[in-house]
Amino acid sequence: MFGGTESLLETKIADQAALANQIIDVIVDVGMVPREKVTLDATIESLDLKSIDIVMILTALEEKLDVYIPMDGPFHEAQDVKGLSEAIWAYIVKEKS
After folding, report:
1. Which of 49, 65, 86, 92 could covalently link to 53 via disulfide, CB atoms 3.0 to 4.6 Å apart?
2. In sequence order, which residues have a C-beta less than 8 Å from that of residue 91 and are 6 or more positions away?
3. Which residues contact 6 (CB under 8 A, 6 or more apart)?
4. Integer CA distances (angstroms), 78 to 43, 65, 74, in order
């Protein structure tokens, strides 16, 4: 019984890690930020992303993940890449359930 739950949890963690990697890829490609600068701890400010960059990144993520991401959601409150990833993960889980 618990083995199935652990597997599901491991899958979710792997999926969340994969999502974080996809977000990093989009930030690098769309935001034109050098990959070495884009870590989970990197702040949005340290990446020199402007509002328009963030909108373009969120739009690219919508297309890539096939999910609507509202521009006024908790994503704009994220202070770093990890926070952005967690906010998008929580939103996707909520929308897909």
Report:
1. 49
2. 67, 69, 73, 74, 75
3. none
4. 9, 19, 7
Q: Which residue has the tokens 């096939």?
A: 66
* Residues 90 and 97 sit within 8 Å (Cβ to Cβ): no
Instruction: For residue range 19-70, list pLDDT tens digits in order.
Output: 999 999 999 999 999 999 999 999 988 999 888 998 899 899 989 888 888 8
Question: Could you tell me the two tokens for 14?
Answer: 């792997």
**In the block, residue with structure tokens 């999502």:** 19
pLDDT at residue 3 in the model: 47
**Domains defined along the chain, listed by start:** 2-96 (1.10.1200.10)
Q: Which residue has the tokens 């050098």?
A: 34
Condensed to tens digits (0 to 9), the pLDDT of residues 16-27 reads 889 999 999 999
